[in-house]
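@channel anyone free to eyeball this complex?
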Amino acid sequence: MSIESTVMSVVALILTIPLLTGTYALAQMTRFVFKTVSLRKPNSDGLWSARYYWNPFNVLIMKNELTSAGLEARSSVIRYLRLFLLSLLSFALFFILLIIISSTLE
Amino acid sequence: MNSIIVGIERTAALQLNLGIVITDGGATGNPDAGIVGGVGVAVGPEVGATAFLTFLVGGRENFEGRTDSLNFSAGLELEFHKNATTRDWIGFTIGYGPGAGVSLSATNSAAATIGDAIDLARSIARRISEIAGSIGAPVAIKENSCQ
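replying in thread with the prediction:
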């Protein structure tokens, strides 16, 4: 196997991992958003309404009172959101590293 | 549909999106996958944050560059996208997450794909081969060069 094909295979393999992880994290995040919505308590007037707040990721998250399972689900949303962002960040960092190596060798 | 993007989006005057794209390359490109991010402005009363799934015709020409979109959001989000250069409708997005409103947005997106990385890796490997070759090559000595 030549150096060229070895390097290309390794790069493709390394970059596939964060893409798969990111897709998994996003699917889980969506699942827990659905779960959070289904586990909220009704408001004091007995109506279901959606009130939101801004979390540290600047993403709107439901503010309605949640059951304990709902609170757990909401923290899972944040956990998987963080994993999604980290996956994409690692992809971007590896890509930047390749650009730096390439320009250094030129 | 030739390209699919899954990701997250936040809209509140400023529109930010980040996602993973998988494409068969459309009519002219090669199959590829990577990350795509966009920044834009949205005009209209819409505030929201969604996890989304986008379906686009064509390849890189449609998920990179400027896109104009019409967005509807009420828990579920629906967006229709237009390529700002060709003025063709190129696809739609369905999203889910908190938010409500209607807006028009113009977004500029950039993508980094495994295909791009492989091109970079190929040029790095070639350069390494050249360097290795030049180290191993015999050095030509000119006879009587000291005289």
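from a first look: Chain B touches chain A through 35 residues (CB under 8 Å).
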